[in-house]
Design goal:
Radius of gyration: 25 Å
Number of strands: 10
Structural class: alpha/beta
Helix content: 40-55%
Shape: elongated
Largest sheet: 5 strands, mixed
Number of helices: 10
Strand content: 15-25%
Order of helices and strands: HHEEHEHEHHEHEEHEHEHE
Length: about 290
Amino acid sequence: MHLSRRRFARLAGTAALVGPQLTGQQTPLTAQQAIERIQKNAGVPWRPDSLDTIKAGDPSTAITGIATTAMATLDVLTRASKEKANLVVTLEPAFFGRLDAPLADDPVYIAKQEFIRKNALVVWRFSDHWRARKPDPLATGLAQALAWSKYRLNGGPSYLLPATTLSALVDDLAKRLNARAGIRVVGDPQTQVRLVSLLPGVSALPATMKLLPDCDVVIAGETREWESVEYAQDTVASGQKKGFITLGRVLSEEPGMSLCADWLKTLFPEVPVRWLPAGDPYWRPA
């Protein structure tokens, strides 16, 4: 069939209109692409030898949503699947050890891996680099959850609160963090407290030794009982009016991962981002 120049021009014009619509269709975001976007915007140099790697799932999976959590428990993964958040960003390990090493013969490990596979989830750890950001996002998130941001002193880990008792402080912590039984306390419940220091996550003895002499109470996430806990006990036994509170590692970190979700929303306007807390894993006997 012979085409006139006018007819050819009309067809070419139609193709020009259709072409951009086809090429402009949004390509699905993959888990690997999402991770690379986070890496580029992390605000700290990316270390290839870090713990922050994919722990389960296919990197080429198209992302329908992102969920952040302090710990990717099976319950969290189930909720993520229901919410169609198939990229799960976890602060702590998903498979029961620092390196998420395979436990090939363990039925719980196998079941968890199978759930991830069947539901096309991708579990990626974001720990080393999230913790390295300044200011500390875990302490910032915890302070926000407790409504303490306005009480922060000089950008450090300490907060000057309205005067209260150690007992009342603990009650408020439990209420605001939805704690069930993980909170433990050293010190006289009636001790008057005002200056409080935060150590979310895991902390070693030197951190407690540095902060406790200059504040009324240290609130930690997780610590060895024969280190910071014993030090706090002996401080109180020596006659000093001090307190030491452990929230539990995950409970103390969850608000920081809520903050992470808020940050990721600015990086991923094309997919839903939500925080799915693992919650306090403990319950208290009657």
